[in-house]
Structure formats: structure tokens, C-alpha cells
Design a protein that fits this description.
Elements: H1 24-46, H2 68-72, H3 81-89, H4 93-99, H5 101-123, H6 127-133, H7 136-157
Helix pairs in contact: 1-5, 3-4, 3-5, 4-5
Length: 160
Amino acid sequence: MSEQRSPSARSPFLIPLEDGPVAASVDRLAAVLTAAAAVACVVMLWRVEPDARGHGTHEQFGMDPCSWPVAYGFPCPTCGCTTAACHLVHGNVLQAFVTQPFGMLVAAAGVLLGAHALWCLVRRRSFVDLLVRLPFWRIVAAAFALLLLAWGYKCLVWQP
């Protein structure tokens, strides 16, 4: 007699769509929206050049310059994130990390999540299953700590 493993003991990459934690249509919708958002972000970032200052790439999307440096004399917590993401999309991984470590890691996570969503769509695997297994609050706490560390780093290397 074969021993059955509990659903939580199975590899999240092998869960068939029908065995996922939500209805198949909801799982598909989540995967499609995630993949579409990732592709849209990559295309948008690919179409612009990273700002040589290490910040300000968002201005190429028609956004206003950041008011923090004018108001406070130092960069905002997410200063350089768009520039780092742009470097990453252009294949300059080291430059992305040097520009803004938090921005590079968030962009990389977004690209990987989008790729995973596409993989799940093609292979008919549950996309949501992996998401519900992630230690959400640990990830949020680690991301917040990394944001603060990266902000401190950006303040040290800041050049207006």
C-alpha cells in the first residue's frame, strides 16, 4: 500500500491546478494578472534608460521629481528603486544592486514571480498554492528591514 502525503508535504511546483487551494478559475486569473503585470513592468522599464544619477528614472514616465531632497536634504526611502529595476531589466545586475539594493531585489522578485506565473499557466500548475505557502509576515519583516538598510546606504552614497 502506498503512503499518501498531505497536500502541505507536496512540492508547490507539482500541485496540479485542480488540487490547488482555490478554484481553478481564480488561480488562473491570479496567474494571468501577475504575469501581465510583470511583463508590462519589464516592457516599460526596457523602453527607458536608467538615469545616470542613480535616481530619477521615474521622471521618464512623466512623474514629478522627488520632493524629499528639496524638503529634507536627503533621499526618500525608495530613492533609486526605479533606476535599479531599470538596470536589472537591461541586464546590469551589479549596477542595479549598487544603485539601490532594495529596488533591485524587489524587481528581481517581481520578474521571478511573473516567470513562475507564466510557468504555472503553461504547465497547468497551481500558482496560488506556492503563494499561500510563503511565510508572508517573515517576508514583509525582512523586506522592511532591507528597505531601511538600503535607505541608509542610499543616504551615504547620495549625490543630488
